[in-house]
TrEMBL record, chains A, B:
Protein name: DNA-binding transcriptional MocR family regulator
The organism's place on the tree of life at top rank: Bacteria
Residue intervals of the Aminotransferase class I/classII large domain: 66-423
Family: Belongs to the class-I pyridoxal-phosphate-dependent aminotransferase family.
Species of origin: Stackebrandtia albiflava
Gene3D superfamilies: Aspartate Aminotransferase, domain 1, Type I PLP-dependent aspartate aminotransferase-like (Major domain)
Keywords linked to the UniProt accession: Aminotransferase, DNA-binding, Pyridoxal phosphate, Transferase
Biological processes per GO annotation: alpha-amino acid metabolic process
SUPFAM superfamilies listed in its UniProt record: PLP-dependent transferases
Needed co-factor(s): pyridoxal 5'-phosphate
Length: 439, 439
């Protein structure tokens, strides 16, 4: 199949195995596996960037007989491919020469206008297209903010657990991550105050995914949003608000983004990866003019400019196709799968196990029965043909050993049922093993 | 026009005004123009990254009445848009769900195989798809190599003049650039030896565009390639070979890439921006396994993964469409325009002016008559409705004041004739002004 970037079911499952979705790309250093003539030549930052030893395990997770609850993929089979194909073809016929050319480093003007309309619908009303920088997914937006703000040794505050891709960025920047404890209402204001107080140097910013967080599915409540903003304002702490999931609401609309409540000191990261198509790699940063100029320079240095074609595709999609209706399709699909997952967990998981009840997004976060190590258990799970991401991948400090992330957006309800059933068996066996040795 | 990323002639001309093409994005610091509340918070690297004061001038160059010889754009109007549109549509129908999803950080396997076939045709015969990392254009490849190898204060050697986007990368990495003098046969081996000897610390690598260089159009001769490889080998100096233009040959095939002569110590950067479509942003790095792993980690941190869609589009293009025939179309078109430019320069330029005769690629490099400053002359040129890039943009050391880069790939032959005619008048006036003041 020419042009196939991994198009069959097996490969699509494999496509879930990026560092984003395996969730643990940087937790354990592997060394000595490859003869490396360049060791003496690397930059200092490279010594902190390491591949995970569980990457190898995830090669197994890509096999079709394994039910992967480990991915972080949207279900792109829900997109109307024939209509999109016609749209892409028409785009090339109408504006091909420009879509196939370089574009300004800040991104296409029309797209930045559309992005402001999208943000306005989430409550960010006063944003100007001039203050939007188009990026290769929100990941590049975060990487650019790190380039602009982080010196080696700087402190970044982040939820514990947090998005694994953010940990990768902070590690590459040689920053120190300090986790702020969360509960079912999101990060705890008192813990944020404490983290600021305990920092030996003022933290450069707070990185947060306040809505349907990756990996926990938890949402920062309205009351806590006000408290967090107040604390950050009092301490002069900048906020990086990462909001990929805000539109994927199942149980009513989420609280307005932090950026909707203030235009001062909050950098907002958005993406079309979950509302349209991750494979186009179109995201954005909203930042005040002085910072925006620096983000554009940093982006030109990294990639020259984002793809004019994928920007044009997103612009045309937003302006000519019923994209809000498509978001509803994703919401309905994922809500059904979340319900399935929650019901199956309640049905089959042993006592002592708890999990979050996400109001939207892609993930459930589970606490294993006491004494069970999710990473140690992974080979057994893979042997039983089910995959998840161990909790340690989402921590910079070794935390998360008793936890795991489960994805419900990509596998079908049927696969979720089977996956949770298998997982329950694995946990049950691990619990019995634990009891044997601690009896 | 929905989805238009700048589709009319004016905007397409504007699309040439990225930092790559204006060629001078970082030469002069502008400060104090924006009230900046974040000054105290930026990372150290940001203080070396500055926008050019001539950026504002180039807003003028985007006007349709201005003939821009300043761009660095391929002529994408030569692509068969209807056929490409059909191909894109079919791709989505066949493999849409995977093309719209995340993919592995290293890039799509099938594409990496196709890339090895492309490289084999240039003489790089033994490359393995495992050693290829797909990037957002060759720019990201260079940025990743900088991430992996460059610490602040490190020395990088580069031709003088060199690609402006490379200077941006090295500046962001806080490296020190040392230029190696070139002549009509490319960089001078003795000057390379001298630059190594004069470095207070061993240079991390030599960055070179050996074939149809940007900005000079000059090609490193076969004999000199051997000499450069020998020098680098003796001194243990790594080479970053950037080869975007090698397939755009007008006067017979160019010498084989450096990487074709050794697989030791040469990192090779390739791109489809000039052979297919810059707007898809698909390039690659070829690197040995140990380095490749680090490049993948660095890329995942920057962008998570490249666009699965644009990778699938390039893969399908390479495997199902007559892409080598299309490269010939570009070659023929650009050769005709080069010939036009060289003929017009010979016809109308004043005595004391010289220029290169590129055997391929996109650019002519011109030396102005003694005492004429190309940057100082730019406002006058724009007033006369012609644009070029002053030579200072391609130097890290203030060099290039008496030089300019002229692009012949994007403007039509008719526009080139008119542009060179206008430019000759501007240079003539500047020469007379010079004579008045030095008489």
């Amino acid at each position: 199949m020419p042009g196939n970037p991994g198009g069959d079911d097996c490969a699509a499952e494999y496509a879930g195995m990026t560092s984003e979705s395996i969730g643990a790309a940087r937790e354990v250093t592997v060394s000595g596996t490859t003869l490396d003539d360049y060791t003496d030549r690397y930059a200092a930052r490279i010594h902190g960037m390491a591949q995970s030893e569980i990457r190898a395990l995830f090669a197994v997770a890509s096999r079709p007989e394994v039910v992967s609850l480990a991915g972080g993929n949207p279900d792109t089979t829900a997109l109307p491919m024939a209509e999109l194909g016609d749209m892409f073809a028409q785009l090339l016929r109408d504006n091909g020469p420009a879509a196939m050319l370089y574009c300004p480093g800040q991104g296409d003007t029309r797209l930045r206008e559309e992005i402001c309309r999208v943000m306005a619908s989430t409550g960010i009303a006063a944003a100007s297209p001039d203050d939007v920088v188009v990026t290769v997914g929100a990941q590049q937006g975060l990487s650019l903010l790190a380039t602009v703000f982080l010196d080696p040794g700087d402190i970044v505050l982040a939820e514990g657990p947090t998005y694994v891709g953010a940990l990768g960025v902070f590690q590459a920047a040689q920053a120190r991550v300090r986790h702020v404890t969360m509960d079912a209402e999101g990060l705890i204001p008192e813990a944020l105050e404490a983290a600021i107080a305990e920092s030996d140097t003022p933290p450069k910013f707070l990185y947060t995914v306040p809505t349907y967080q990756n990996p926990t599915g938890v949402t920062l409540t309205d009351r806590r949003r006000a408290a967090v903003l107040d604390i950050c304002d009092r301490h002069g702490l900048l906020i990086v608000e990462d909001d990929p999931y805000g539109m994927l609401a199942f149980d009513g609309e989420p609280p307005a983004p932090l950026r909707a409540r203030t235009d001062d000191g909050v950098f907002y990261l958005g993406t079309f990866s979950k509302t349209f198509a991750a494979g186009l790699r179109v995201g954005w940063v909203l930042a005040p003019p002085a910072v925006r100029d620096k983000l554009v320079l940093a982006s030109e240095s990294q990639i020259l400019c984002p793809s004019a074609f994928t920007q044009a595709a997103v612009t045309r999609y937003l302006s000519t196709m019923p994209w809000r209706q498509q978001v509803k399709v994703f919401r309905t699909l994922y809500q059904e799968r979340r319900d399935t997952m929650l019901a199956c967990l309640a049905e089959s998981m042993p006592a002592g196990m708890t999990w979050t009840r996400p109001g939207g997004g892609l993930f459930v976060w589970a606490d294993l029965p006491h004494g069970i190590d999710s990473k140690a258990m992974l080979p057994q799970a893979l042997a039983e043909r089910v995959a998840y991401v161990p909790g340690t991948g989402f921590h910079a400090d070794g935390g998360g050993t008793g936890q795991m992330r489960l994805n419900f957006s990509f596998p079908t309800s049927e696969r979720i049922r089977e996956g949770v059933r298998r997982l329950a068996g694995v946990i049950d066996a691990a619990t019995r093993l634990r009891d044997t040795f601690t009896a």
